[in-house]
Design a protein that fits this description.
8-stranded mixed beta sheet; 31% helix
């Protein structure tokens, strides 16, 4: 595979990123989201890494410095959020390279990185990668929309339901 370039989100990225995801049918990944990410990156609340291969867009990942997941927020654990690699670029080390960049950045500010992963089969590759990297469940069970689930709670299985995990970086 060609060399993966990892860099910060730039002002000219939102449109091509949204177009790339629209081309594979992921309509929820829109220009407005990436413009919001750019503003949040500029204000320091989020870091955004973009992966490119041969000059083309391949994927991205973000780091939020104050997690919406209450246990991470209280413990000041930065959270890796919204890792996406275009299907045609998967299984080429791009997700791994994005994670490396995120963990280096987080490690300069925190001893621990947090991440949440969906629970359907769509997330199998992510589960395996996170486990290989040393992420383990945070011990609070499932979380729905950033709140740990209570026993007997009814939740909708989808992107809002996650297993929250942490990894020591030092």
């Amino acid at each position: 595979m060609s060399t993966v370039e990892i860099r910060s989100l730039r002002a000219d990225d939102p449109e091509p990123m949204a177009a790339a995801f629209a081309a594979v049918g992921w309509l929820g990944k829109n220009v407005a989201q990436y413009r919001r990410y750019l503003v949040e990156q500029e204000t320091g609340s989020r870091a955004v890494f973009v992966a490119g291969v041969r000059g083309g867009f391949a994927g991205y990942l973000t780091v939020v410095w104050h997690s919406a997941y209450a246990p991470f927020g209280v413990a000041e654990i930065p959270e890796i959020v919204d890792l996406n690699v275009l299907p045609s670029f998967r299984r080429r080390g791009i997700g791994w390279a994005l994670m490396d960049a995120a963990e280096r950045l987080i490690g300069a500010r925190s001893d621990t990185a947090g991440i949440g992963v969906g629970l359907t089969a769509d997330y199998t590759a992510a589960h395996l990668m996170y486990l290989r990297r040393g992420y383990l469940p945070d011990g609070r069970g499932l979380a729905y929309r950033g709140v740990p689930c209570r026993h007997g709670a009814s939740v909708r299985v989808g992107d809002d339901l996650a297993l929250m995990m942490t990894r020591p970086l030092r």
